[in-house]
What does this fold into?
Amino acid sequence: MSRLIVLDTETTGLSAEGGDRIIEIGCVELLNRKLSGNNLHYYLNPERDSHEDALRVHGISNEFLRDKPKFAAIADELLDYLNGAEVIIHNAAFDVGFLNKELQLVQRPPLKAVVAKVIDTLVMAKEMYPGKRNSLDALCDRLGVDNSGRTLHGALLDAELLADVYIYMTRGQDALLVESFEAEVSTRTEDAFDWKSLDLPVLRANEQELAAHESVLLQLDKASSGQTVWRKFVT
It folds into this structure.
């Protein structure tokens, strides 16, 4: 079973090596590309104040974090949760750098020693949409992911949005999985039953079903910048 974890952090500033710390971690689990509901979310006491620029981004006050657990208290639970998973992060170098610094401070192994691999959706987006803005907000707009509730950065919300973005960006993989499954079924059953003897009824889609289908096609059109193949064959 494919297990993916979409992860995001919020921090007191931009420099882990300069002493900035993680204040929030949000994780969303995908099993076989479906949300499982087995999420993980922490607010953390960073033992220092956030920079003013960072406060404007995440809006999490220093006072709010005073009674929250320190990273050391949640490190083992976090590592157990991430163990063996493929971890999806937007601009992974930033979050991984902070996580590795926190893990080092509590004498735990770096992230790469625990997870199967790290997938950077920013790198993916730059390859798919060269020369375009590829922030999380920009990708949500481009792919039709509703981010209207994102007035401030928040680790769990951003992880949930990124999960949707990742599914849209890799949607072609679903088709490959279906083709593989259909080929396997065909191989297993072609000698077991004479399908030609069946007179299968044709069920026409009603107006509601056609409208729902068109809505999905429009989303795919938007995600592919109007390059969907089937539109070329519509008569």
Observations:
- Residues 175-181 have pLDDT under 50 and may be disordered.
